[in-house]
Amino acid sequence: MYSGIWLPLVTPFRDGEVDVGALEALTQRHVASGIAGLVALGTTGEAALLDRRERSVAMQAITEVAAGRVPVVAGVGGIDTASFIDEIQRLEVWDLAGYLVSAPAYLCPDQAGLLWHFGQVAQATERDIVLYDVPHRTGVGLAESTVAQLARVPNIRAIKACARERFAAFGKLPIALLCGNDDAFLDCLRAGATGGILASAHVCADLLAEVQSLFRMGKTADASRLFARLEPVLTLLFAAPNPAAIKAMMALDGGVSAQTRMPIAPATEALVRRLEAARVELDELRADLSSHGALTV
């Protein structure tokens, strides 16, 4: 199940409130497009800035629209392991495949502490756990030996990896490897990744899927050329704190507001102009591929 392009959904806002209609429409559009899976309440969804009521509203909208057509996992983060478990128990009422779980933020536990943390979380549910190795946010990374031990836990099924230097090590382990660093997607595929949880899929899921399809078919040179054309856009989408640039680019087509929740500031006017140019580049890339019959998604 943990393969292909997964989308960590943004949370659209309108006048400072969760825009339920826009979130439902966004979910429907991507489910219908053939996305492999969805992540609700992730970093890209500004989940840390949503209160409990808003988190429930977002979960209701996403799971009701997805309706079992694609798997949905919910992001779970924080500092105290007990709060992780409390959140999982609260989320158990929703139709979820599992949970995307990070290390405790700020505390920077050692590897023994991380083993304990993820072990406690895995025991709190029968649903799948996707480990989230995101040291630039939590302050601590998962070691290869730690992931190897955690992979023996029956419901720990995959890892979303954001540290390029550990892709190769994780790719050798008996656990599905999903890329979490958009501009490193091709490197992660080379390391054995089965797919990615990629925020940029909001605007170019088809092109990311094409990169993976070409790579799987052994057309590595074609995959590399396509990804090289994508890389400048992927870099631009993270030129502001996530998801400001992604929301701004989505807003160019209407339907989703560019609004973010402070302290995540909206994209600047200068960045929006660059995103407008990037949107044109993506359209030209799709046209080039379509004219050669290359797009598979």
Q: Terminal Cα separation, in Å?
A: 18 Å
Task: Examine the coordinates and then state which fold CATH places here, giving the name of the CATH topology.
Answer: TIM Barrel
Mean pLDDT: 97
Please give the number of β-strands: 10
- Principal-axis shape: globular
**CATH fourth-tier homologous superfamily:** Aldolase class I
Q: Which regions have little confidence, pLDDT < 50, spanning 5+ residues?
A: none
Helix percent reads 40-55%
Radius of gyration: 18 Å
Element-level helix/strand string: EEEHEHEHEHEHHEHEHEHHHH
- Strand portion: 5-15%
Which strand order do you get reading across the main beta sheet? 1-4-5-6-7-8-9-10
DSSP helical segment count: 12
What would you call the structural class? Answer: alpha/beta
- Second rung of CATH, namely the architecture: Alpha-Beta Barrel
CATH C-level class is: Alpha Beta
As for the number of domains, it is 1
Largest sheet: 8 strands, parallel, barrel
